[in-house]
Amino acid sequence: MDYSVGQVAGFAGVTVRTLHHYDEIGLLVPSGRSHAGHRRYSDTDLDRLQQVLFYRALGFPLDEVASLLDDPDTNPREHLRRQHELLTARIHKLQEMAAAVETAMEAKKMGINLTPEEKFEVFGDHDPDQYAEEVEQRWGGTEAYREAQRRAGSYTKDDWKRINDELDAVHAHMGDLLDRGLAADSAEAMDGAEEHRRFITRHHYECSHELHGCLGEMYVSDERFTAFYEAIRPGLAVFMRDAILANAARSS
Which one, 89, 141, 183, 219, has the greatest CB density within 10 A? Predict the structure, then answer.
C-alpha cells in the first residue's frame, strides 16, 4: 500500500508542512508520486518516519538524524536498540528528577529565598531550578557547585531580577549576532560567548573555559536547554555552543 501526505500526517501526528520540509531536505523522500505529482508514502517510508520522530523526541537535530539513519553500517534493529537505551535512560532521569522535586518540596530547599509566587514573578516561564538535578549530577561534588549554592542562597528578589535581566541581555545580543549572519567563530560571537562565561563567574561560580565548553555541549545535547534557547531565537542553541567552543579554543 501507499499513503498520501495527509494520511501520513494523520498517522504520525505531524503537520503536512513538516513532511514537506523533510522531503525538501532529503530526510524523508516519499517513494512514489501519483499521476498528478502528489507525494505517496510506502510502508518503508513510514518506518523511516518513525525512526525520525523517535530521534527528534530524544532531542537530536535534523542533520544528526539524517546522518544516523543514512549510516550504511547501522541496520534498523540497531536504531531501535539505541533508541530503547536512550528512552530507558530518559525515563530513569525523569524518575530521579521527580524524586528530587519531592525531596525539595519536603525540605523546602529551593536555593532561593523567595516564595513560589515571587519566583514565578521574577523568572516568568523560566524556573531557575529546573535543571538543578542535572547540574547536581554532573558537578555536585565540585567547588563550583558549592559556590553556586552559597551565592544563590544569599540573593534577594531584586538581585535575581537584576541577574536575570543581565542574562537576557547576553542572550539577546547573541541572538542578534545570529540574525546578522555572523559565524559562531567570528570575533563578535566569541566575545559574546566570553561575556556569557564571565556572567556565570560574576554571579554563580568560577566558570573555566573547559567547564563553559561542557555547558555549551549541554545546550545542544539536552533538549530542555535546546528548547530554552530555541524559544529565544531559532538556531541559538547550536550557535551558543559553537561560539563557546570557539572562544575556548581561542583562549588556549
Answer: 219
For residue 33, give every residue at least 6 positions away whose Cβ sits within 8 Å of its Cβ, in sequence order, or none: 39, 40
Q: Determine the longest span between alpha carbons in the chain, in angstroms.
A: 70
DSSP string covering 30-53:
-SEE-TTS-EEEEHHHHHHHHHHH
**Residue that is written with C-alpha cell 563578535 in the block:** 188
- In 3D space, the residue among 180, 202, 199, 179 whose CA is nearest the CA of residue 244 turns out to be 199
pTM of the model: 0.49
Query: What pLDDT score does 108 carry?
Result: 44
Mean pLDDT by 10 residues, the chain (252 residues): 91 90 93 92 90 81 83 74 76 64 48 43 45 55 70 75 89 92 94 95 88 89 84 91 94 80
Q: What cell was used for 156?
A: 534577594
The single-letter DSSP state of residue 252 is -
Place of cell 495527509: 6
Distance of alpha carbon 131 from alpha carbon 246, whole angstroms: 25
Q: How buried is residue 185: exposed, middle or buried, by Cβ count under 10 Å (0-12/13-18/19+)?
A: middle
Render the burial of 189-201: b for 16+ CB within 10 Å, e for the rest. Answer: bbebbbebbebbe
Q: How far apart are CA 91 and CA 98, in angstroms?
A: 10
Q: State the DSSP code for 111.
A: S
Q: What is the DSSP string of 186-231?
A: SHHHHHHHHHHHHHHHHHT----HHHHHHHHHHHHHSHHHHHHHHH
